[in-house]
Design goal:
This protein is mainly alpha-helical. It has helices at residues 8-24, 29-48, 59-71, 76-95, 122-129, 136-151, 155-159, 189-201, 224-237, 246-261, 264-271, 276-282, 287-297, and strands at 166-167, 172-176, 182-186. Helix content is 55%, strand content 4%.
Length: 308
């Protein structure tokens, strides 16, 4: 649905909430924009039905909003994200006396199949990263991809990295993840080498954001879109038979570390996942694999001897 100008009674709470996400929760601009889009779409629906107060929204109104989203042929995943955004927004309203109840609680999103993330195998990763440094931007791109694969960074974490976040001596990088959660990650020797090569040519690209680790040809901090475009181009140039995007490098990192270590908790920490269940899905572990690890490791898991 096409957004309309929301009345002040709706807009003021939205603005306050977005500032809260940005300033207090330290969400990325990309994430805040997504929340804004979903909530403003819901606000547009309310205006259409002459509702100008978030407190007057009922569960029935939320259900009607879902039905209208379906009529507009929004994908189930998009509807689920919209409901999740509204649910979080109402938690904020409740905490700040902007609402008495959360009308989104108990409203189920349409079911959808959640595809398992796909990764590159070790040979494909080696093929992708064998980039000849034909120019400065090729050096930058290889440094970005080496770092993402080495440390399992999210795209937003990569883009927001500053020069001072990298400790080349101790081979570590400081990362500000989702929800403003900090973590320090190891960086492989190869990634450090390419980062140092990039830092040698980086001064030629300095502009308005001198702290940014990765800069564009326009002398600005590299954008999410630019990273996606460059990685896709390198996938084609390196003859990788599957589309390359940043998330695939992060997933390949997780899969390869897990295959070697079989340490799910360690991978969870490295990825910055709040819940272990997220890591389970991310690394497409199934229950049988976990059961085997449990049977082999837990002292009470051993079966009794049949002869006893």
């Amino acid at each position: 649905m096409k957004p309309v100008l929301l009345p002040p009674t709706l807009e003021s709470w939205v603005s306050d909430y977005l500032r809260y996400l940005s300033d207090e929760r330290q969400y990325s601009p990309h994430t805040v924009t997504n929340y804004q889009r979903h909530i403003e779409n819901a606000g547009t629906f309310l205006v259409k039905h002459k509702v100008t107060d978030w407190q007057r929204v009922s569960p029935e109104m939320v259900k009607r909003f879902v039905i209208e989203c379906r009529h507009q042929r929004l994908k189930p995943r998009s509807i689920a994200l919209a409901l999740s955004s509204l649910r979080s927004f109402y938690k904020y309203l409740l905490a700040n006396d902007g609402a008495l109840t959360n009308p989104v609680e108990g409203i189920s999103a349409p079911k959808f199949d959640k595809p398992l993330p796909k990764n590159l195998d070790v040979d494909q990763m080696s093929q992708l990263l064998e980039i000849d440094p034909e120019d400065d931007l090729a050096i930058r791109d290889r440094a970005m991809m080496e770092l993402m694969y080495s440390s399992g960074l999210r795209l937003d974490e990569l883009v927001s990295c500053n020069v001072n976040d990298v400790d080349s001596i101790n081979r570590e990088i400081w990362v500000l993840g989702k929800g403003g959660k900090e973590r320090v990650l190891p960086v492989g020797t190869t990634a450090v080498d390419w980062l140092e090569q990039w830092l040698k040519v980086r001064p030629a690209y300095l502009g308005q954001d001198p702290d940014a680790l990765f800069l564009s040809k326009q002398k600005r901090r590299i954008s999410h879109r630019q990273v996606r475009t460059r990685m896709k181009q390198w996938g084609l140039k390196q003859n990788i038979d599957t589309s390359i995007h940043p998330h695939k490098l992060r997933h390949s990192f997780a899969s390869h570390v897990l295959e070697s270590s079989q340490d799910l908790r360690a991978v969870q920490e490295l990825l910055g996942h709040a819940n272990l269940s997220t890591t389970q899905v991310y690394t497409h572990l199934d229950f049988q694999h976990l059961a085997k690890v449990y049977d082999a490791a837990h002292p009470r898991a051993k079966l009794k001897n049949k002869d006893e």
